[in-house]
Amino acid sequence: MPVELIPSAKRLIRSLRDIGYEFVDAVADIVDNSVEAEATVVSINLKFEGEPL
To answer: d(Cα 35, Cα 23) in Å, to the nearest integer?
Structure first.
């Protein structure tokens, strides 16, 4: 029987920060990937509802 593991977003974000991956880099990657996929519209909406990390 397969086991589903749900990764911890908080742990992932902390790990990425530790290696120097910042919020602005993540947004730039989203835009870059969208342009590469020949998107004609890129819309990014953010709403943070969690606790500060």
So the answer is: 19
Angle at 38 between CA 23 and CA 20, to 5 degrees: 20
5: left (phi over 0), alpha (psi -120 to 50) or beta: beta
Q: State residue 53's pLDDT score.
A: 66
DSSP state of 47: -
Average confidence score pLDDT of the chain: 87
4: its two tokens: 């589903």
How many other CB atoms are found less than 10 A from the CB of residue 16?
A: 14
* Residue 36 clears pLDDT 80, i.e. is over it: yes
